[in-house]
Amino acid sequence: MEEEVKKEVDSNGCGGGGEGGGADDGGGRGVELVRVLVVDDSLMDRKIVEMQLKKSGGGFEVIAVDSGKKALEVLGLNEVATRRTPLNERKIDVILTDYCMPQMTGYDLLKAVKEHSTLRMIPVVMMSSENDPQRISSCKEMGAEDFIIKPLKVKHVQRLRTYVAPKTPLSKPGTKRKLPVELIAESSSYESCPRVAKVAVA
């Protein structure tokens, strides 16, 4: 089963990802990519999603699979994968999944992710060719960030970025953190307060 996932990922490629997991912004500095796990049993729809993410100007790495079960393997939730694969080893930032899929629906995948104590923080965006209000409502109640009516468009890709938590850059070793102005003012005023000398009473 793990070999099938690897074949699926390799055949679909990484949309603008590169081997290093980062892109060059032209100045020699690496830019963190947003890793999107695309889950859809339709090869055509997976290609459309990948094309739209590439057209957006880059910044996305696409990992595509054709079923909810394979998505669970990528996330490390599958029974077989959990023995060998750590949770979210591929550091998925957002999941973009079709609703209607055989064996395991997109809703089932959404439920599995949101009921997991560690992976529930990963944003899940649903897709469907059917505009079903009840279906949309049930997905959002389960924790879906959005419900997109196919086909995926540029405006949907732009919204996709807003669901991903910004990556906070780590401070370099040996550098001092700057305190906010308010804290500096408070600490300096506190230290400038003169101490009252104790007077001994005879």
Automatic annotation (TrEMBL):
GO BP terms: cytokinin-activated signaling pathway; phosphorelay signal transduction system
InterPro entries documented for this protein: ARR-like (IPR045279), CheY-like_superfamily (IPR011006), Sig_transdc_resp-reg_receiver (IPR001789)
Region (Disordered): 1-27
Protein name listed in UniProt: Response regulatory domain-containing protein
Chain positions found as 4-aspartylphosphate: D98
Keyword vocabulary terms for this entry: Phosphoprotein, Two-component regulatory system
Residue ranges of every copy of the Response regulatory domain listed in the record: 35-165
One Pfam family linked to the record: Response_reg
Biased composition (Basic and acidic residues): 1-10
Gene3D superfamilies linked to this entry: 3.40.50.2300
Biased composition (Gly residues): 13-27
Source organism per UniProt: Canna indica (Indian-shot)
